[in-house]
Design brief:
The structure holds two protein chains of two kinds.
Chain A (H helix, E strand, L loop, with lengths): L1 H27 L3 H7 L1
Chain B lengths: L2 H29 L7 H15 L9 H24 L16 H12 L9 H4 L2 H31 L9 H27 L9 E4 L5 E4 L4 H10 L20 H25 L3 H28 L30 H14 L14 H12 L10 H21 L4 E2 L2 E2 L2 H27 L1 H5 L5 H16 L14 H30 L16 H35 L5
Antiparallel strand pairs in B: 1-2, 3-4
Helix pairs in contact in B: 1-9, 1-11, 2-7, 3-4, 3-6, 3-17, 4-17, 6-7, 6-8, 6-13, 6-17, 7-8, 7-9, 8-9, 9-10, 9-11, 10-11, 10-12, 10-18, 11-12, 12-16, 12-18, 13-14, 13-18, 14-16, 14-17, 16-17, 16-18
Classes of the chains: A mainly alpha, B mainly alpha.
């Protein structure tokens, strides 16, 4: 049981890091040049 | 301080400077995929690995694919190392018949070595089998170092490329780093260490009859092979609990010098690799000079504090002056054969890099010496730092520096021909704030929570320093410890795992995002208003930014720990 808990924690942590990576483009925005061009 | 002590320090610095350009040039050719003198022997192995793993070495990845490959690879490494520890009582090469490692300790150890931290809540010789040491710990020392270097190289490509959608191939960078950089150097270092007297055997421990009629068990194992990559990878996790203070892990003054050199070798040379890959070696030397400046200040302060000794011991008749028969200064927790200078230099190198190896017990350093060791780590491991992580961390500070300079003069900041815009600044701040947030929050929790306080051997400001040091070391992937804190409890194993994980991957992901964002940008032509970043002015400005950001973030915590302890000691109170 403790092993499953530890492995589950590991999996959740790496999945969260992957989700963070996927969210980065949204966090970064589209860049000043792209925004200027849009305006 | 003695002339002999300074000669040791200056000899070490001269060797690092001499090795930086040749190794930096070699690594630049490796990461550009060019032929090097080892290609004849290693290329068939490299191609075989790609074929076996199904890697298309000709294709490249965007930053997100690069990051997800890295995370997947590190997840597999963590699970493998965890299971290896939990099953070691069933696996071969366990001459000491050691039991399976407890679940929370196995998790902490797995995260620790996969993240290149090497925090050890255990004594290696009494906890891990030879198989776990060799197939688990030593392998992860190679792979975690290669992971850090791959991230640094990806960021360099971000600066070097123009309007590019890709930043390299993680699997190729990983393979080439291990094959062409780490393995050859580790083999040479292991052979040297065996020559110096470090054991390399699978025969297990031996027993010896002591002079007073007792029996002593002397632990041995495949030490040299692990020690070589331990130092080279700036990982620092010892085969023995006493780490490089153990005579089997650091037998001679020459092994001490070479171990120190191995710690700085790759991380320092990467500044030169950076300069070559962006086509401006002066820029690489500017980063090297910034690191060197901060290191020189740190090592001088630690050596001065330790050589001065503890004045409270003088009335007790204890002679702390250097002489022909003793090195003098504060020798508590230090090996007589290394003395104050050798111990101060090792401690400064170990905390400036992300090594964490020790040849003296940092808990016994005087408060100001301990404060410098803490500060070295708190500056995000930019003073040479870990292999790869040192370079990408100082590049993050470069982005902050040019951003601040841009604010001062009202220009869009530029760095190495790339405009630094809000996307890069946001990711930089995210990476730079994650680590202090983890350290300060977890230290605060452990300082008031009963399970956190239960692990303390000292009270007052020294006890606080022990907790602060543990989380600082973990989140900055250093791994050294202030002894005195029993961290092998579920509370510390789990919270330190969180610090190590966040301090590694929540920095790597934004760094790769920055790499991708920069690679996609066109070149920003240099103009009369461009801030020169490869000269003395920028070196001073960058060092100032690093110190001010680090100082503002951590000064309150340092005041509660080592600074308060220093003033208490001046007033006659010891903790």
């Amino acid at each position: 049981m403790p092993d499953l808990l530890m492995l589950a924690l590991t999996l959740v942590a790496f999945i969260a890091a992957g989700a963070f990576a996927r969210a980065c483009p949204r966090l970064m925005g589209r860049g000043d040049e792209a925004e200027r061009a849009e305006r | 301080m003695t002339a002999l002590g300074w000669r040791q320090i200056l000899l070490f610095a001269a060797l690092v400077i001499a090795a930086t350009a040749p190794l930096g040039g070699y690594m630049a050719r490796v990461f550009a995929g060019e032929r090097v003198f080892l290609s004849g022997g290693l290329q068939p192995i490299e191609r075989g690995i790609y074929r076996l793993a199904g890697i298309d070495s000709g294709s490249e990845q965007g930053w997100l694919a690069y990051a997800l490959s890295l995370l997947t690879f590190n997840l597999i490494g963590t699970v493998f190392l965890y299971l290896l520890q939990r099953l070691q009582n069933f696996t071969p090469l366990n001459p000491g018949h050691l039991a399976a490692v407890d679940p929370d300790l196995a998790l902490s150890t797995a995260v620790s070595f996969v993240s290149n931290t090497s925090w050890q809540s255990y004594a290696g010789e009494g906890t891990l089998s030879d198989l776990t040491q060799m197939a688990g710990i030593a392998v992860q020392m190679f792979l975690s170092a290669a992971t850090g270097i791959a991230v640094a190289v990806a960021l360099i490509r971000g600066f070097a490329r123009r309007r590019a959608a890709t930043i390299g191939n993680f699997w190729v960078d990983l393979t080439r780093t291990v094959l062409y950089v780490l393995l050859p150097l580790a083999v040479l270092a292991a052979l040297f260490l065996v020559w110096q007297g470090v054991p390399q055997t699978l025969d297990g421990s031996v027993t010896a009859a002591t002079r007073d009629g007792g029996v002593q068990t002397i632990a041995r194992g495949p030490v040299a092979s692990q020690l070589a990559i331990k130092m080279l990878s700036s990982d620092g996790g010892g085969f023995f609990n006493a780490n490089s203070a153990h005579p089997f892990e650091n037998p001679t003054p020459l092994s001490n010098l070479v171990e120190l050199l191995l710690v700085f070798l790759i991380a320092a040379a990467l500044t030169n690799t950076f300069g070559r890959m962006i086509g401006n070696q002066r820029q690489g030397w500017a980063l090297f000079a910034t690191m060197g400046l901060l290191f020189a200040v740190g090592v001088t302060m630690v050596y001065a504090a330790e050589a001065r000794g503890n004045r409270l011991l003088q009335p007790l008749g204890i002679d702390a002056l250097p002489g022909p028969l003793q090195p003098g200064g504060n020798m508590e927790g230090k090996e007589v054969r290394f003395g104050t200078a050798g111990s101060a230099l090792f401690a400064a190198v170990s905390t400036a890099s992300s090594s964490g190896a020790v040849n003296a017990m940092h808990d016994s350093f005087l408060p100001l010496g301990g404060a410098v060791l803490l500060t070295n780590m708190m500056l995000d491991e930019v003073i040479v730092g870990g292999v790869g992580s040192g370079l990408y961390s100082i590049l993050l500070f470069c982005i902050v520096a040019v951003f601040l300079a841009g604010l001062m003069i009202g220009r869009t900041p530029e760095f190495i021909g790339k405009k630094i815009e809000h996307a890069e600044v946001k990711m930089t701040m995210l990476a730079l704030l994650t680590v202090p947030a983890l350290i300060l929050l977890l230290t605060a929790v452990a300082s008031v929570a009963p399970p956190g306080l239960a692990g303390l051997a000292n009270n007052g400001p020294h006890g606080f320093s022990e907790i602060l040091y543990a989380y600082t070391s973990a989140a900055n992937t250093n791994g050294s410890a202030f002894a005195g804190l029993n961290a092998n409890t579920p509370f510390y194993n789990l919270t330190l795992s969180l610090a190590m994980f966040g301090g590694r991957y929540l920095v790597i992901v934004p760094v790769l995002a920055i790499a991708g964002s920069l690679a996609a940008k066109p070149a920003a032509p240099r103009s009369a208003g461009t801030l020169p970043t490869d000269g003395g002015l920028f070196v001073g400005f960058l060092a100032g930014v690093i110190l001010i950001v680090g100082g503002l973030t951590y000064l309150p915590a340092l005041s509660l720990g080592p600074i308060a302890e220093h003033f208490a000691m001046q007033a006659g109170t010891l903790y």
